[in-house]
UniProtKB/TrEMBL annotation:
<dbReference type="InterPro" id="IPR052022">
    <property type="entry name" value="26kDa_periplasmic_antigen"/>
</dbReference>
<dbReference type="InterPro" id="IPR007497">
    <property type="entry name" value="SIMPL/DUF541"/>
</dbReference>
<keyword id="KW-0732">Signal</keyword>
<dbReference type="GO" id="GO:0006974">
    <property type="term" value="P:DNA damage response"/>
</dbReference>
<dbReference type="Pfam" id="PF04402">
    <property type="entry name" value="SIMPL"/>
</dbReference>
<feature type="signal peptide">
    <location>
        <begin position="1"/>
        <end position="30"/>
    </location>
</feature>
<protein>
    <recommendedName>
        <fullName>26 kDa periplasmic immunogenic protein</fullName>
    </recommendedName>
</protein>
Length: 263
């Protein structure tokens, strides 16, 4: 009579069975009522940071070294072609006067051009065309501000009808703004430190940490910068004051608030 043996039932097999049974018992014990739930360590990023947000400001006045002059040239005639021809003649004379005064041609440009009908102003003829008007503006960048008054006289005599606008600027304005941004950030830091000192009386034990965010808002305004002058050909200014340019910068900075360990 033959005897058959079951293959594969080695000691390793029985060891695996025992390990699985033990794991099952431990899992059941963990789910029993009253057993404590596992606790995960809290992440530092999940802790809400304390912060303070303040505004800082800084401003300064600088002397302008560039003037942007916009001249108006206008003609009127009974036909559009004549008005345009007269305008071209006047504008060319103004350009010649500017270049003759030493203005670089690259600093001169035409920024506006228009031809439009002129209607009668009489009540019974309001829709009647009585002529055509041609107009253009010539914009000039001038570095010699003291010579502005004489230059306006020169262009008026050459054919310009009016000064449409006169604005002043500074070549290296960005360098000044960079200085103001730094000063405004320091101002914000001083304000934040002062606020925490004011809270120190209640035993808060607070101190200022590193900046979290910075928002920069810069603005530019000109004081006494020669408001737009509307002069007829015979009435140009004998003196032009550039005044000063006031640059102001504002920043909003958020700082982290640290709490002293003793509190």
């Amino acid at each position: 009579m033959k005897t058959f043996k079951k293959r594969g039932q080695t000691p390793i097999f029985y060891f695996m069975i025992a390990a699985l049974m033990l794991t099952g018992v431990q899992g059941a014990w963990a789910q029993m009522p009253g057993s404590p739930a596992p606790q995960l360590p809290s992440s530092p990023s999940a802790v809400e940071k304390r912060s303070i947000r303040v505004q800082g400001q800084a401003s300064m006045s600088v002397e302008p070294d560039i003037a942007m002059l916009t001249l108006g040239v206008e003609t009127q005639s009974d036909t559009a072609a004549k008005a345009q021809g007269q305008l071209a003649d006047r504008a060319s004379k103004v350009l010649a006067a500017l270049t003759g005064a030493g203005i670089d041609r690259a600093k001169i440009k035409t920024s506006y051009y228009r031809v439009s009908p002129v209607y009668s102003t009489k009540q019974d003829k309001q829709n009647v065309i009585i002529g055509y008007k041609a107009e253009t503006t010539i914009q000039v960048e001038i570095s010699d501000i003291p010579a502005m008054a004489g230059l306006v006289d020169l262009t008026m005599n050459a054919g310009a009808n009016a000064v449409r606008s006169l604005n002043f600027d500074r070549k290296n304005m960005e360098a000044f703004k960079a200085q103001l941004i730094e000063a405004a950030c320091k101002d914000a830091q001083l304000k934040a430190q002062a606020a925490l000192r004011g809270l120190a009386g209640n035993g808060a034990g607070l101190r200022l940490g590193a900046p979290i965010s910075v928002d920069v808002q810069d603005s530019f305004s000109a004081r006494n910068a020669g408001e737009a002058m509307m002069f007829k050909a015979a009435a140009s200014p004998d003196f032009v004051s550039a005044g000063e340019l006031e640059i102001s910068v504002a920043v909003a900075v958020e700082f982290e608030i640290l709490v002293n360990s003793s509190h």
